[in-house]
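Risk register update: the risk of archive-format incompatibility is retired. Evidence:
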Amino acid sequence: MIGARRCLAEKGYARTTARDVVAASGANLASIGYHYGSKEALLNQALIQSAREWGDRLSAALAEPGEIWGRLVELIGSDRQLLAAQFEVLAQVEHAEDVREVVAEERPFDHLDPRVGALYQALLTGIMAQWLVDPATAMTGPDVVEALDIVARGR
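Archived output:
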């Protein structure tokens, strides 16, 4: 599993081969099929671990009192590999039911009005994408708060 997660971080889901996982882990090629059934099943389990790790970090950031967007943006910028893995997870939800189920049960904004939670989730995903593409121009916590205020005032 450690080798699979390393390969996901270094090569991504689509470019990782079973031989890459073997090289990263020192395991036997046949052990992938024996323990997981396929390379895809192993990578899906590695993605699920990444999604849960991200969910734990996100929940911890949301649990602290005070202004959340600064903490969320700090979390986004803190681990680029884990951030990239979240988009790998999203790319697999259409093809892997086990991955989709894990993503569907993650509801970090459930304590809010459902419309607000959905908006925050969409904002968070967009900010994550900005940080992956160009961290230098991605929104900061204060940027998010100010932009939401502008939108709320109808400007």
